[in-house]
Design a protein that fits this description.
The complex is a heterodimer of chains A (about 240) and B (about 550). Chain A is an alpha/beta fold and about 240 residues long. Chain A has one domain: Rossmann fold. Chain A is about 30% helix and about 25% strand. In chain A, helix 3 crosses helix 4. Chain A is globular and about 45 Å long. In chain B, the strands form 5 sheets. In chain B, strands 3-2-1-4-5-7-11 form a 7-stranded parallel β-sheet, with helices on both faces. In chain B, strands 16-15-14-17-18 form a 5-stranded mixed β-sheet. A two-stranded parallel ribbon of chain B has the order 6-13. In chain B, strand 14 and strand 15 form a beta hairpin. Chain B is globular, with a radius of gyration of 30 Å. The N terminus and C terminus of chain B are likely disordered. The chains are: A alpha/beta (about 240), B alpha/beta (about 550). Chains A and B meet through strand 1, strand 2, helix 2 and helix 3 of A and strand 3, helix 15 and helix 16 of B.
């Protein structure tokens, strides 16, 4: 992982507490000292697959995008926190789905709504791995843009994106255990425009060592798609 | 940027939470259920780590309080960027951050932090229409005093002993002016010389009272091999034996501040958090001398000492104790009306300082080497045959025995075969085959790092990381995601299996020490032909 951009001197980080149906979601805001250019929710992988807000991809994205003028929010899921739920894990083991998956989606929605309310702004969403599925489920007509990183197409349909006109960026790797490259590209072909894709050739599901390059793609996409330009009042 | 909306009402912003008084106060507030937001210096990660350790020493689990939303952590600094505190709902400030250096430093401290920093925080609070401000000041902001120091803000500047006193007085004046202008409530807490915990002696601050003790230690070390001279130093101490030093325990101060902060009826006052019956110089000297086995010093009146005629030993002592010398002679008398009333309502008693309690303070600080960091590195022991034997015991006996009775056994759909390679122990590799949640077999295998036919994946890690995981102290999944372990083969299966193994490791934690005892008990049991099962020694970690 590169030097943590979240530790840049001009960034401020704040932990936040968001009330959710399964307890309080702990999260972290990051923002720079420059003019705000939009708000972004970052949604992490499945808790059974190591999904926390400290994930390498999410952390670097939060830092890079905050430095670019966005307010970013990461959060930890709560629905599957604590002890292993044997039956839930059993289901996840065999099907790739846990019974609580929709609770995780709901927590993502709550986090997004919280950020909207705090900033009185539209919120773009970035989802990584299972988080891409959660992002696809909470996109609505107020969402300025969506970034789907290593979407788990093998396990989830992400059907909402087929008809959504929200600008979309899909980032994936050629050697991803979660979904084969061809399957991702086939799924991408069926998505409604506007859309873009970027493939990390030789990369895998974890983007270790490639976080900065990935973040640069995302930043460029968001700046060209949704960013409020400094000095421009967004209607 | 659109205006921010605050949805969560009622939260106290706390500055100086990693300070000596600050972490005790924060711990006390958290125990009492007060919703707080701690402003921590960048970077937030390392500041949070420090706060976690400090609170853990006081029995408070930071993760629990951040996890349930009672405590928020905000990155910011008085002389840098202050937090926007989006959505934190802050409606009061408890300002404890301070620089306690007595003399002016090249960076402008203590003025820079205590005055400029406080002014910035007051401006920040005004912008948020915050109407309650709690300021932790110092009893010694009274400077050179005559008569009883009242529990009131003094707008007239006295003469000061040092820059620190001056800066604390100025901060009070600024806060009082701010409160009047903004029709806010200012509450001021003035502790005297704050020392370690009244029961344990634990401290994280080694100035003030401890400076004299450290000076005595310097003296004791210089006569380490000369008992006779060490016990007859002949040092003349400037001060009067019957004069007092106003020491107060940090837990007392924290309890008083937390009590006042919690109850608005106590707001808007000045509190002298000082000792009503402080110990005398003679009592303090006795405690310090006893601890270091030093003697022969005596007090002399300040007017009777010719500083030009100090002996070599006296000069050594005075050099070491210089910053606090005047506190041996300057003993203000502090009014305590407000404080007495608060003590009465809170049921808090200021602990007294006899020789025994003072001795405890010195002993704790001395054992802690006056706060000097001890460079420590986790020693990695060389690999021995015992390592291989313990790993074999784990995979071939411990794992089969306890998986069978663990929650893993309920995962009847668990079918996977994996190999563990401990790459820094030669030949240490075991293949484990789970069938319907049962560990069907676990036996030694070769150390190749690619999956063999029938294997789903190979997990490659080091001995240290392996045992950390086996003890339940680290999550195998995180170990992999952080790059401390590698996986070859079906990564999805490996990640899922890591969740299962972590659950097992927490249910049946195992360390080399506990396993060695487990094995010894087993052999002893075998030798005596007894067949009783020996429970794992879960607590020996």
């Amino acid at each position: 992982m590169p030097d943590d951009p979240l530790n840049a001197a001009n960034l401020t980080r704040e932990t936040v507490a968001i009330e959710g149906p399964h307890g309080t979601l702990s999260g972290e805001l990051a923002y720079g000292d420059c003019e705000d250019r939009g708000a972004i929710l970052l949604i992490g992988p499945h808790p059974y697959m190591g999904g926390t807000m400290d994930n390498n991809v999410l952390s670097v994205l939060a830092g890079v995008l905050a430095a670019a003028g966005f307010v970013t929010l990461r959060f930890n899921y709560r629905a599957l926190a604590g002890e292993l739920i044997a039956e839930s894990m059993l289901s996840f083991w065999t099907t790739g789905h846990a019974p609580q998956d929709m609770d995780l989606v709901e927590e993502s929605r709550i986090a997004r709504n919280w950020l909207r309310a705090q900033l009185d702004q539209a919120v773009s969403v970035i989802g990584y791995s299972f988080g891409a599925y959660a992002a696809s489920e909470i996109i609505d007509d107020q969402t300025p843009a969506a970034v789907l990183i290593a979407p788990t197409v093998k396990h989830h349909e992400l059907a909402a994106l087929r008809t959504s006109v929200v600008p979309k960026l899909v980032i994936y790797s050629s050697d991803d255990f979660a979904t084969a490259q061809l399957a991702t590209e086939s799924w991408f072909a069926g998505l409604a425009v506007p859309k873009r894709k970027a493939c990390f050739v030789g990369g895998n599901h974890f983007f270790r060592g490639e976080e900065t390059a990935l973040a640069a793609h995302v930043r460029e996409f968001l700046e060209n798609t949704v960013a409020v330009q400094p000095g421009v009042v967004k209607s | 940027m659109s205006p921010l909306f605050v949805l969560n009402p009622g939260r106290l912003l706390v500055t100086g939470a990693t300070g000596f008084i600050g972490h005790h106060v924060l711990a006390e507030l958290l125990r009492r259920g007060v919703r707080c937001a701690a402003m921590l210096r960048p970077n937030l990660l390392s500041s949070t780590g420090r706060l976690t350790d400090l609170l853990a020493d006081l029995g408070v689990d930071l993760d629990r309080h951040t996890g349930n939303g009672q405590l928020l952590l905000l990155e910011g600094q008085l002389n840098g960027t202050l937090p926007r505190a989006i959505g934190a709902g802050i409606d009061a400030v408890l300002h404890m951050a301070a620089c306690t250096d007595f003399e002016r430093r090249p960076n402008g401290d203590p003025w820079r932090t205590n005055v400029d920093g406080t002014r910035r925080l007051l401006t920040w609070a005004a912008a948020r229409r915050i109407k309650r401000f709690h300021l932790v000041s110092s009893a010694y902001r009274c400077g050179v005093s005559h008569g009883v120091v009242p529990e009131a803000i003094s707008m007239a500047a006295p003469r000061f002993h040092n820059d620190y006193e001056h800066s604390k007085w100025q901060a009070e004046v600024d806060a009082a002016t701010w409160a009047r202008k903004h029709r806010a409530t200012l509450t001021v807490y003035r502790p005297s010389i704050v020392v370690g915990h009244s029961v344990t002696g634990r401290t994280t601050s080694f100035g003030g009272f401890y400076v004299m003790a450290r000076a005595t230690e310097v003296l004791a070390r210089s006569y380490m091999n000369d008992d006779a001279r060490r016990r007859a130093t002949g040092i003349r101490l400037v001060g009067r034996p019957t004069a007092t030093q106003n020491l107060v325990a940090v837990d007392y101060v924290a309890s008083m501040i937390a009590t006042a902060v919690q109850d608005p009826r106590h707001h808007g006052r000045v509190y002298h958090l000082t000792h009503p019956k402080p110990p005398t110089n003679a009592t303090i000297k006795q405690a310090i001398d006893t601890h270091f086995d030093v003697g022969g010093s005596d007090f002399v009146d300040p007017d009777a000492l010719d500083e030009a005629a100090l002996s070599g030993v006296e000069r050594l002592f005075y050099d070491a104790s210089g910053p606090v010398r005047h506190y041996l002679t300057a003993n203000p008398d502090f009014a305590r009306g407000n404080t007495d009333a608060l003590e009465g309502q809170a049921g808090v008693i200021c602990p007294e300082y006899d020789v025994g309690r003072l001795h405890g303070l010195v002993a704790w600080a001395h054992a802690a080497r006056w706060g000097r960091r001890v460079e420590s590195r986790r020693d990695v022991a060389p690999v021995t045959e015992a390592d291989d034997a313990l790993l074999a015991a784990y995979f071939e006996r411990y794992l089969p025995r306890y998986v069978a009775v663990s929650k893993v056994a309920r995962m009847t759909a668990l079918n996977a075969t994996m190999r563990f390679v401990i790459e820094d122990v030669a030949g240490a590799a075991w293949r484990c085959r789970f069938v319907n949640g049962r560990l069907a077999d676990s036996h030694r295998a070769d150390g190749t790092t690619v999956p063999q036919p029938g294997e789903d994946f190979v997990n490659i890690t080091s001995r240290t990381v392996f045992w950390e995981a086996a003890a339940g102290r680290v999550d195998p999944q995180k170990v992999f995601l952080d790059g401390q372990a590698r996986v070859a083969g079906d990564i999805e299966a490996a990640l899922k299996m890591a969740v299962v193994l972590h659950d097992f490791n927490r249910e049946f934690p195992c360390s080399p020490a506990s396993l060695a005892k487990h094995e010894a008990d087993r052999e002893s049991s075998d030798a005596s032909s007894e067949c009783e099962e020996v429970a794992p020694c879960l607590t020996i970690l």
